[in-house]
Amino acid sequence: MNFVPKMNRRSFVVGTAAVGGGLALGFDLPLGPKAAHAADAPEIGAWVVIKPDDTVVVRIVRSEMGQGTLTGLAQLVAEELECDWSKVTTEYPTPGQSVARKRIWGAFSTGGSRGIRESHEYVRKGGAAARMMLIRAAANEWKVEPGQCKAAASVITGPAGQRTTYGKVAEAAAKLEVPTDIKLKDPKDWKIAGKPLKRLDTKDKTTGTTVYGIDVKVAGMLNASIKQCPVFGGKVKSFDAAKVAGMPGVKKVVQVGDNAMAVVADTFWHAKTALDALPIVWDTVGNEKHNSASIAKFLETGLDPEQPAFIGNQNGDVKGAIKAAAKTVEAVYSYPYQNHAPMEPMNATALYTADKCEVWCGTQDGEAALAATISASGLPAAKCEVYKVMLGGGFGRRGRVDYVTQAVNIAKQMPGTPVKMLWTREEDMQHCFYHPITMAKMVGAFDKDNNLTGLHMRISGQSILATVFPARMDNGKDPVTFQGLNPSGETAFGYSVPNLLIDHAMRNPHVPAGFWRGVNVNHNAIYVECFMDELAHSIGVDALEFRRKLMTKHPKNLAVLEAVAKKIGWGEKKPAGHFLGLSHMMAFGSYVAGAAEISVVGDKIKVHKLIGATDPGQAVNPAQIERQVAGSFVYGLSALFYGECTVKDGYIEQTNFDTYPSLRIAEMPPVESICMPSGHAVWGGVGEPTILVAAPAVMNAYFQATGKRIRSFPLKNHKLQIA
Amino acid sequence: MIHLTINGKGVDIDVDPSTPLLWAIRENVGLTGTKYGCGIAQCGACTVHIDGAATRSCSFPVSAAVGKQITTIEGLAQNGVLTKVQQAWIEHDVPQCGYCQSGMIMAVTELLKSKPKPTDADIDNAITNICRCGTFQQVRAAIHAAANA
Lengths: 723, 149
Ligand code: FES
Ligand code: FES
Known about the structure:
Strand content of chain A: 15-25%
Mean pLDDT of chain B: 98
CATH superfamily of the largest domain in chain A: Aldehyde oxidase/xanthine dehydrogenase, molybdopterin binding domain
CATH architecture of the largest domain in chain A: 2-Layer Sandwich
Mean pLDDT of chain A: 91
Helix content of chain B: 25-40%
Strand order of the largest sheet of chain B: 2-1-5-3-4
Largest sheet of chain A: 7 strands, mixed
Shape of chain B: globular
Radius of gyration of chain A: 27 Å
Number of domains of chain A: 3
Bound molecules: FE2/S2 (inorganic) cluster
Low-confidence stretches of chain B: none
Structural class of chain A: alpha+beta
Oligomer: heterodimer
CATH class of the largest domain in chain A: Alpha Beta
Helix content of chain A: 25-40%
Structural class of chain B: alpha+beta
Strand content of chain B: 5-15%
Distance between the termini of chain B: 42 Å
Largest interface: A-B, 63 and 58 residues
CATH topology of the largest domain in chain A: Aldehyde Oxidoreductase, domain 4
Order of helices and strands of chain B: EEHEEEHHHH
CATH superfamily of the largest domain in chain B: Beta-grasp domain
Shape of chain A: globular
Number of strands of chain B: 5
CATH architecture of the largest domain in chain B: Roll
Number of domains of chain B: 2
Distance between the termini of chain A: 46 Å
């Protein structure tokens, strides 16, 4: 039963030429809108393949990990293409092909909710260009002007009633020049995009036939299990391979880099069993002295306003405002390390020969996976290739490629033999790029008339970029820290305060940090939105009323906030014991707000309802947006109630879902989602933004219910449970 | 040699009797629809039916499955016709990444066998699978739809 996944197609042909019986129309489109993160690589171009039977293959380079980007991007291409949606399929170009074609598709990176928001323009242009070429091919055949012809549902009609299909003219169309003067449809005329269509990848996911990285089979493949030094930064000091050499199925014991050991065996189970028995001595390089308490102490030093800090947002004179205040309110919040814990543990399969290195894996960034393959194999780019398969969840974790490097490293020690390396859940829990750890000291200043005159938010804690992209830092500052807090742009602060200072005292412990669904808005939203409620409460003003006053210059933030407030019945009479909470923020180009209705009995919080509103500018698939909102709330509530990775002797204590629990169906509150695209030109994302509103909305409701303000997380540490 | 009956077919595999059934199914039999998520009976991704009972195969030795009927996700559809649970899953567009869904569908299939019209409370009690994508709202709707199909 050996096979290679479907997308491993070696017959890929460059340029506009026949591909496997179909026709490929190549587009060399200009770059799309400027990437939000300046250091990001340019955007992608698109491919449409039309087969003689009218099947449309839309090429997608962003990775599908459950968020529905495959379907959404295909909808955008199909919309402009005017093709029959029932004939649409998708295919991933490989990163190696991208290199060979001089990066025609640009960045493959799938994170920061940018699958659609940063590629919608050029993929739509790809679809539109294809439609124009197909129409021109038909017009040429009929000797009429393209303007006299029309295309709909993959059928082209001419002025005299001529009729043909895309499949029939595709060959001629492929030889035509790609138009550059392309006018896109007004979204109000959309028929495929903007509609709640079903996903394209569902059926195989209900029959067990979808191939994830863990399922890849290559002829003659062996399996590897890996163990990295539990203490971050530690190294392999010694090991005793002879002890396990004779165990069932064992082929080889290999060191992987300077910090890991692996056993290669016929099956994973044999490899894991032998690895468990392998004596390894680690050099923990002094990092064994770190623990959660010492890390907290380290962060606390950054809360001192006199400590140097990077400024993220500033106006007026906050120090002066605090000094002159009739009253100040202060609070210190903190947020822990968290693991992404995608259901499929990290894995990759690699085959190395002196002449070629191939990798099969689920990755959020095919290009980064290829770069890792090139560097770990030592082979030139032209001799390396990565075949992407479905991801069993990503949430930011699979944007890192540490596991690709390891798989290639192992395969290099077994030349000619494909090896699949799979992490155990325990390995996955202890070797993440964790949600960064931070604290924030919030200080609000009121004048004698209870106007908020000043706000100082001092964040102390970890920079993600310092771990993963130090080169993208700005003179030592990590701009990503200020997501949701910036003076302007796609993650702008939603309040106007006359004297404002938001700054960051960077404190980087030895635990690696990474992008975790929602990234820095998760804690920033808790800090800001819970504190806004604290400020409102301190002067006895309704939480919504208090915000409204500060949001007159932020109508889009206010619109989503008002929408959830209305839907939850803010200010209306609620059943006895029910309490409400609100939150909002701008993130990843979308305006989002949340409202929670809860009741508290003893140490149990019952969330009766959680409402999320999102304004992403344009909504490409409302049904999938609704699912992203509900799913992000499960992820966000899991984090709020359970999510914490603690450090002991330099390593992470949690090892599996027994110590790092995740929400189950019984704990899932009913979620209502409001999708209210207002048409702003820069489209927002939907995979991440709404995650941020769940926790502050619930915590603000909890305060209403109990008068207790909780400022450290997760709630299990306060003996609180979700009912 | 261990003799198993999987999806109605007999198969002989050469494994240690203590090997978890999950790995025997995935690696020795070669059926990969059954997933590994935790290995400690926490997540349910590895759920199969053993004589009709939903079982977390990661924590079940292969030797204990001898002489029993094992059904995996691949064995649900008969002659290419999907079960009503699978159809409801498609109708409600349940899966996101999909990785947990084999186990979810196996657990739900057994629930509907023992409780053809489950209440929400029945669902809460019986379905304890982890889904990190958070598809629960769709899962619940699809269970009710399958029950009423
Ligand atoms: S893998 Fe068996 S329950 Fe998680
Ligand atoms: S659909 Fe991704 S874990 Fe459930």
